[in-house]
Amino acid sequence: MAWVVLVVSGVLESVWAIALGRSQGFTRLTPSVIFGVALVLSMAGLAYSLKSIPVGTGYAVWVGIGAVGTAVAGMVFLGESANVLRILSLLLVVAGVIGLKVFH
């Protein structure tokens, strides 16, 4: 169960990161509220997961999911560049996250 919560928390990290960018310095209400809710839920899920997953592994997986999710969302929805080197770099992050889980 901790791993499922950790993955959901990592996805929520992407949500709050994107909402933070969209909030324009907390001047827009809806993205600011989404940021706050997603941030609290993401941190609570991470905290729950770290009760049974080692902190180094859990935090790295959480950050990896958030970083890859945010970068992919930027490429797909926000018009950020999606060149081969960026995609290869994201695949390396994914490989590292999988390695941390497998060799846990």
From TrEMBL:
Keywords attached to this entry: Cell membrane, Membrane, Transmembrane, Transmembrane helix, Transport
InterPro entries: EmrE-like (IPR037185), Small_drug/metabolite_transptr (IPR000390), Small_multidrug_res (IPR045324)
Compartments where located: Cell membrane
Membrane topology per record: Multi-pass membrane protein
Listed Pfam families: Multi_Drug_Res
Transmembrane parts of this sequence: 33-50, 59-78, 84-103
Main location: membrane
Domain of life of the source: Bacteria
Family recorded in the similarity comment: Belongs to the drug/metabolite transporter (DMT) superfamily. Small multidrug resistance (SMR) (TC 2.A.7.1) family.
Alphabetized PANTHER family for the sequence: GUANIDINIUM EXPORTER (PTHR30561:SF0), SMR FAMILY PROTON-DEPENDENT DRUG EFFLUX TRANSPORTER SUGE (PTHR30561)
NCBIfam families: PRK11431.1
Name of this chain's protein: Quaternary ammonium compound efflux SMR transporter SugE
